[in-house]
């Protein structure tokens, strides 16, 4: 029930920000290059004046429509969850806009802090409310309260950053940002609906258990893309600036390096899921072991997502938001058709196949378009290095486990740690090249606030 409610709330939250989060990243970076922080501040204020009223309107609409949604899914208990979590929608939008503004200035540390503190607060509050016997409704309020706290923290960081920004009276072209943001907004809605369409279709079935199993598998597999998504947030403004300045060669280098790093990280988790998937799923519930195949299939999809690099971000930040929207609409239609055919006939396994095919299709399409438009691609010969390290480590642990079998989760954890150590040692033996060293330097500078500009871009 919580998974279904969260999918609904997040979709409405994406609609509420009207795509202006990406607009702030793009035009905030451009204005910052021309006019400093004052230019970024102007862009952010214009966006807030639109997003805050819109998000309030969506919040009230969802609140009064919650019971109708519960009837639609034939789950009466869904209504109160939607109402309690819907409070968070305006604060989601404010937080997203303000953090996007700080990232447009190429400062990532504030986003990192909020992205760590908010879910930690949600977890602690959920534990407290469950201890107080408030049940699932308490967990939903924990989500809303943590989102409010996250918005407050983002506001504090933003104001601290902009407190000394000089003011200027030049007008900013709102129509230009809306023209860019509106297709991005629709793209975000459709893309999210596309990613969660399996949850919605499973939600229409009589049992909600498969929704929980699929959600856990999806989230675990989604961990594979943490690094590539983090690099997208870190280098998104650079991507916008490089494409704006027509420095395509440098953009291509950045594109390839991000893909390699994303693949290197995703491969570790994917191989862990193959080795220990059943043990990991059994942590949640013994019956969830039947979701192991789903975990591996979605994990494979996310591995492909990682190796194709930030193709979607490159497409968006180079100004092709309309093409990105067209891609996503095509994929949503394909996803709904696959869900309709596969889920209604094959349930949970059908959902896994639908998710896998959709992710593979979207990445093939985006990579092809980036190549046609910009003549750059995410593939490098040294992608073979993490592949060698992964296969070697996988083989070693597989053989060792065959000789020393155990049913202990603690021992499995030690095997996982040993697998990761093998992987890292082999990668180091195969040597880190100059581009990788520049990414490490750039990450260190952005997280720890160094004033030196990263060599990877400049």
Task: Describe the protein's topology.
Elements: H1 2-16, H2 20-35, H3 37-72, H4 78-86, H5 89-104, H6 109-131, H7 135-162, H8 174-203, H9 209-222, H10 226-244, H11 248-284, H12 292-307, H13 311-317, H14 321-374, H15 384-403, H16 409-430, H17 434-448
Protein architecture, described:
There is one protein chain. The protein has 458 residues and is an all-alpha fold. The protein folds into 2 domains: 1-165, no CATH class; 187-458, no CATH class. It starts with a helix and ends in a 10-residue tail after the last helix. It has helices at 2-16, 20-35, 37-72, 78-86, 89-104, 109-131, 135-162, 174-203, 209-222, 226-244, 248-284, 292-307, 311-317, 321-374, 384-403, 409-430, 434-448.
Share of β-strand residues: under 5%
- On the 0-100 scale, what is the average pLDDT? 81
What is the domain tally?
2
Secondary-structure element pattern, one letter each: HHHHHHHHHHHHHHHHH
- Overall shape: it is globular
N→C terminal distance: 49 Å
Oligomer: single chain
Question: What is the alpha-carbon Rg in Å?
Answer: 22 Å
- Taking pLDDT < 50 over at least 5 consecutive residues as the criterion, the unreliable ranges are 453-458
Descriptive labels:
single chain, 458 residues, mainly alpha, 2 domains, globular, disordered C terminus
Short recap of the structure:
With 458 residues, the chain is mainly α. Helix content is 82%, strand content 0%. The chain folds into 2 domains: 165 residues, no CATH class; 272 residues, no CATH class.
């Amino acid at each position: 029930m919580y998974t279904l409610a969260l999918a609904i709330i997040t979709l409405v939250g994406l609609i509420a920000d009207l795509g202006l989060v990406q607009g702030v990243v793009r035009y905030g970076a451009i204005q910052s290059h021309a006019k400093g922080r004052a230019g970024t501040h102007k862009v952010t204020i214009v966006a807030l004046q639109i997003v805050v009223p819109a998000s309030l309107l969506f919040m009230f609409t969802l609140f009064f429509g919650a019971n109708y949604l519960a009837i639609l899914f034939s789950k009466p208990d869904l209504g109160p969850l939607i109402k309690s979590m819907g409070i968070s929608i305006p604060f989601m939008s404010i937080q997203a806009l303000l953090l996007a503004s700080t990232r447009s200035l190429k400062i990532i540390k504030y986003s990192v802090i909020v992205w760590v503190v908010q879910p930690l607060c949600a977890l602690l509050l959920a534990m407290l409310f469950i201890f107080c016997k408030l049940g699932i409704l308490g967990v939903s309020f924990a989500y809303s309260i943590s989102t409010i706290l996250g918005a407050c923290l983002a506001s504090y960081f933003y104001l601290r950053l902009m407190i000394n920004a000089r003011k200027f009276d030049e007008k900013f072209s709102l129509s230009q940002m809306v023209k860019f943001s509106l297709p991005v907004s629709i793209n975000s809605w459709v893309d999210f609906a596309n990613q969660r369409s399996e949850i919605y279709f499973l939600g229409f079935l009589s049992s909600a258990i498969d929704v929980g199993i699929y959600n856990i598998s999806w989230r675990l597999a989604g961990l594979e893309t943490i690094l590539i998504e983090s690099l997208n947030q870190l280098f998104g403004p650079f991507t916008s600036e490089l494409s704006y300045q027509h420095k395509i060669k440098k953009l291509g280098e950045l594109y390839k390096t991000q893909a390699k790093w994303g693949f290197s990280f995703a491969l570790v988790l994917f191989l862990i899921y193959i080795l220990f998937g059943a043990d990991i799923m059994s942590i949640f519930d013994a019956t969830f072991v039947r979701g192991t195949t789903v975990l591996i299939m979605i994990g494979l999809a996310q591995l492909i997502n990682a190796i194709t690099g930030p193709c979607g971000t490159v497409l968006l930040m180079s100004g092709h938001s309309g093409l990105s929207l067209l891609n996503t609409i095509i994929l949503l239609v394909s996803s709904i058709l696959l869900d309709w055919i596969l889920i209604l006939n094959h349930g949970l396994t059908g959902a896994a196949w639908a998710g896998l095919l959709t992710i593979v299709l979207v990445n093939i399409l985006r990579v092809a378009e980036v190549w046609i438009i910009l003549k750059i691609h995410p593939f490098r010969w040294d992608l073979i290095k993490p592949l060698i390290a992964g296969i070697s480590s996988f083989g070693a642990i597989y053989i060792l486990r065959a000789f020393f079998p155990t049913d202990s989760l603690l021992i499995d954890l030690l095997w996982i740690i040993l697998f990761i150590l093998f992987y890292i040692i082999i990668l180091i033996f195969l040597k880190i090249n100059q581009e990788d060293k520049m990414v490490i330097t750039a990450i260190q500078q952005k997280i720890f606030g160094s004033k030196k500009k990263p060599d990877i871009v400049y």
